[in-house]
Amino acid sequence: MGRTHIDGVGFDEWFRAGIASIPGYTRDAAAPTLRITVLKAYVHGLITLKSANLVVRVQLPPDGSSAAATKTYRGFDDSINWSTSESEIQQAFDAALDNLTAQIGADLKKRCGA
């Protein structure tokens, strides 16, 4: 974006940490297994605005009260593009990940009846 180089270095670790921040997330064996596929991760520069987007597909296995489910989520952050700096773009992706995990967490809470 502009003169700022954007790549995927460290993306997997950053994304896993964001998913682990979903309220109620645990690595315990009793926790439901989610299959999350990253479909797209991109940022658009629109003159003085930027839009960071994360698009994922989440697959939930069937449980005792619910059928298997597959849903596509889009986490995003639309904000002013002040300087197109690396830190500014990272903050936009962090906000998009927060938006994404809030959506997934809300659906999991409904599904788990918590």
Outline the structure in words.
The chain is an alpha+beta fold. It is 32% helix and 32% strand. It has helices at residues 11-20, 86-112; strands at 35-46, 49-60, 69-80. A 3-stranded antiparallel β-sheet has the order 1-2-3.
At a glance:
The protein is α+β, with helices and mostly antiparallel strands.
Strand order of the largest sheet: 1-2-3
Q: What can be said about the biggest beta sheet? A: 3 strands, antiparallel
Derived from helix and strand composition plus strand pairing, the structural class reads alpha+beta
> Cα-atom Rg, whole angstroms?
16 Å
The proportion of residues forming helix, as a percent range, comes to 25-40%
- Total helices: the number is 2
Determine the N-to-C terminus distance. 41 Å
Topology order in helix (H) and strand (E) letters: HEEEH
Mean pLDDT: 85
Quote the beta fraction: 25-35%
Catalogue the unreliable spans.
Answer: none
Shape: elongated
* Number of strand segments: 3
Oligomer: single chain
SSE arrangement:
Elements: H1 11-20, E1 35-46, E2 49-60, E3 69-80, H2 86-112
Antiparallel strand pairs: 1-2, 2-3
Task: Provide key terms for this protein.
114 residues; alpha+beta; 3-stranded antiparallel beta sheet; 2 helices; elongated
